Amino acid sequence: MPQPPRGTLPRVDVAVAQDMNITTSPAYVGRFAPSPSGSLHFGSLIAALGSFLRARSCNGKWLLRIEDIDPPREIEGTADDIRRTLELYGLHWDDKVLYQSQRFNAYQACIDQLLAQGEAYFCQCSRKTIQEQMHGLYNGHCRQLALPEGAVRIYNQQQVASFDDLLLGKIQVTSDFASEDFIIQRSDGLYAYQLAVVLDDAYQEVTEIVRGADLLEASCRQLSLYRQLGLPLPQFLHLPLAVLKPGFKLSKQNHAEALDKKRPHIALQQALAFLGQPPVTVDMPERMLAQAVAQFDLQRIPKQTEILIGS
User: Fold this and answer.
1) Which residues participate in the annotated binding site?
2) Count of domains in the chain?
3) Where along this sequence does the record place binding of ATP (predicted)?
4) Are strands 120-123 and 151-154 parallel, antiparallel or unpaired?
């Protein structure tokens, strides 16, 4: 996995050292980080269960973070519903739940420092302009214009075009994608996922990120940010996605059915089978998970990015 250049000092720590609270602890820390835009569904369960089993089998922590940085997409009461569903499924997290909405000051401090250091800049190019005039990838048009406002883009000086995934092996993206100056704050002032997730994973000292394979490309951008900010790099493990047809994953956006809160043992057995794990012989969620952790085998997870399931 790419490492920061030798001798590079963390830049963001200078401004937000107390916020980052970064140590070099080798203990395993994993996490599940849903957005409150809808109820958890089977695809969510795969990510939650996979990250939970991996963390517990490594005798590590499993944290819960609610990624509520996009208010227009959020549904009132969903964050509470997510917590309640996880508890009913026996997926009990460590420490307090972290809400991204509590972290806006940290995000802004980072952006302000990057702007001051010339490592980020304002951009006023529209999506239409980028699509029609730049073939879909931003070409750095506003980098030298010193605009006073707009979306904020990172001046990407630490491009990452490949990384080693713990399940899928070497992941490669195009050099054009890897070198793009991507957005870290939208023109409406909302913070971009790429920035928030990197700062929060560093803040929570996450050592390994287990999530769905739809975020493979995003991992390269996040690794670029880790390197540019001088932050410790986590490892990545991307799980196969549950899809109804090729390229059409179960998601809140396509109205995937919410998890059954009355019969969690059924969905848990199905999710274990999806992840290639041996069946368990009990049907109480906590006992099911205890047995599943004891017999968890990373090598049994299918090494593919998506798996077709019945509708």
Assistant:
1) 31-35, 67, 123, 125, 138, 142, 193, 211, 252
2) 1
3) 252
4) antiparallel
